[in-house]
Amino acid sequence: MEPQAEPDIQAVDEELAALNGLLEHRVRLAVCVLLSSHDALTFTRLKQALGETDGSLGAHMRKLEDAEFVAVEKTFQGRRPVTWYSLTALGRTRLKRQIDGLTQLIDRADA
Questions:
Q1: Fewest CB within 10 A of the end CB: N or C in the chain?
Q2: CA separation for the pair 93, 87 (Å, rounded)
Q3: Where are the alpha helices (DSSP H) in 1-111?
Q4: Long-range contacts: 45-52, Cβ < 8 Å, 24+?
Q5: Helix 43-50 to helix 26-36 angle, to the nearest 10 degrees?
Q6: Are 79 and 57 in contact (CB under 8 A)?
Q7: What is the pLDDT of residues 73-83, one digit of tens each?
């Protein structure tokens, strides 16, 4: 049996530290991934896609909005309010970094 190489604990710690805590929650990560392939999506469409309640999704969207990862536009269809979300340039950059960081960790685990 060949001796295994010592894991690079410092590199793993650095890779984990580089991940954005805001995007560690599956709902917030999923929202950003969905928005990355659309110009904008409504709150209702996101809620249906993710199977979240109004309260849960609203809390996640507020966190993404406060961090300036998403932009919000409120419109009306007839008399009904519609809330649209889009991914900001900052959100797109942070999502890419998160995916790159997760990919590095997965590659390390597969090695």
A1: N
A2: 10
A3: 9-18, 26-36, 43-50, 54-66, 89-110
A4: 46/85, 52/27
A5: 120
A6: no
A7: 999 999 999 99
* Sheet of 80-87, strand order: 41-42, 80-87, 70-77
Token pair 């919000």: residue:
72
pTM for the full predicted model: 0.87
Question: Which tens digit of pLDDT belongs to each residue from 49-96?
Answer: 999 999 999 999 999 999 999 999 999 999 999 999 999 999 999 999
pLDDT beyond 60 at 5: no
Give the bridge partners for 87, in sequence order.
70
Q: Are strands 70-77 and 41-42 parallel, antiparallel or unpaired?
A: unpaired
How does pLDDT run across 20-43, given as a tens digit for each residue? Answer: 999 999 999 999 999 999 999 999
In one letter, which amino acid is 91? G
